[in-house]
Amino acid sequence: MHLKDQFTQICLPLHKDDELISGLWNEIETKYTEKGRYYHNLLHLDNMFQELEAVKDRISRFTLVAFAVFYHDVIYDATSKSMKKSALTAQKDLQNWAYHKKKSKLSLTRS
After folding, report:
1. Which segments of the chain does DSSP mark as H helices, in order?
2. What angle do helix axes 42-53 and 62-71 make, rounded to 10 degrees?
3. What is the pTM of this model?
4. What is the separation of C-alpha 69 from the centre of its chain, rounded to a whole number of angstroms?
């Protein structure tokens, strides 16, 4: 399965906003295809998911693990502590997602 499709598949049960999901994927794809990424790139993500596939049925919170995989090196700088920056990016994106989800629920209840 293509990584974009895999990302969409884990997002859709949690949030139905295709535009938001697409924007989050575009950010991930852009970051993982930056110049100078020799290892921490989309192929690296694909390899990680191939490895996870063998044990997927033993992972109780696979969606959480999948988000961790997608975001673990989204910010990458070999000379810095970029793991913390990756975590902060994931936090920002997921908070934005939660905000949009709450906002869409509010507009549904007001109709």
Report:
1. 3-11, 18-32, 42-53, 62-71, 82-110
2. 160
3. 0.72
4. 7
Residue with tokens 């906002």: 103
What distance in Å separates the CA atoms of residue 81 and residue 79, rounded to the nearest whole number?
7
Predicted pLDDT of residue 108: 36
Q: What amino acid occupies position 19?
A: E
Residue 30 has pLDDT above 70, yes or no: yes
Cα distances (angstroms) measured from residue 106 to each of 24, 47, 99, 103: 22, 40, 11, 5
Residue 7 to residues 59, 75, 83, Cα–Cα distance (Å): 17, 17, 20
- Residues 55 and 88 sit within 8 Å (Cβ to Cβ): no
Q: Do 74 and 89 contact (CB within 8 A), yes or no?
A: yes
Contact 10, 68 (CB under 8 A): no
**pLDDT digit string, tens, across residues 38-87:** 888 999 999 999 999 999 999 999 998 999 899 888 877 666 654 566 66
Task: Let me know if 17 is exposed, middle or buried by CB neighbors in 10 A (0-12, 13-18, 19+).
Answer: middle
Q: How far apart are CA 97 and CA 20, in angstroms?
A: 7
